[in-house]
Amino acid sequence: MMIQIGIPVDEQGTMAQVSNELADLCSEIAWNEEIRVVVLAYAGELSQSRGADFGQYTQIEPSCLVAPIAKLKQPVIAAIKGDGVGLGLELALACDIRIGTAGSRFGLPTIGKGLIPSNGGTQRLPRLVGRGKALEMVLTGELIDAAEAQRIGLLNRVVDSGELVNTAIGLAQEIASKSPLAVSYVKEALYNGIDLTLDQGMRMELDLYLLLFTTSDRTEGITAFNEKRKARFEGT
Length: 236
Fold this sequence. Notes:
alpha/beta, 2-enoyl-CoA Hydratase, Chain A, domain 1, Lyase 2-enoyl-coa Hydratase, Chain  A, domain 2, 7-stranded mixed beta sheet, 3-stranded mixed beta sheet, 10 strands, 44% helix, 18% strand, disordered N terminus
């Protein structure tokens, strides 16, 4: 299945249309149990949005909207071609794993226009790289290179441009081979636990861990290990 959404960025009044289309696309993805991982592959200018269903993972070249992506239950890998600046970086921040290309730059330069980030940049960036570095980046609006972005934890991997999509798809396939229930619980534990005390987070982690004992995936994982074969998880 191929879904394509054209983005006429030079016309006014298109943002609501794009928002609705992307929200509908993400809603379809969220409820599709065959899609276990989402790959967002996009250029810094975010000029168009389109998606394709490849079975256990989906590749999307998104528009400039963040909220529908951030709400997806599946792990989301951002494959950023070129610079990730402004809204492009905010979209990447809403993803779970970020892969960038060598020679690219990253930053939130909106303060130079008398504005602040408005799609989660001031909230997600400090949670990822720490408050001090986030303040420096947002207050100065300066761009950092890919090597620095990886050093501070903004990027998980940096690859050559020609390797970007294959690297992202390979990582998506690796994650998609795991139990989708366990994968979703990992996201829940990591994102919800950050706002809890350590003790509360530990209790939530244990609750999620024990819930997995009741699943068929857990039985399949043990059976596959004993039979020395690759597990075939069904998400049940």
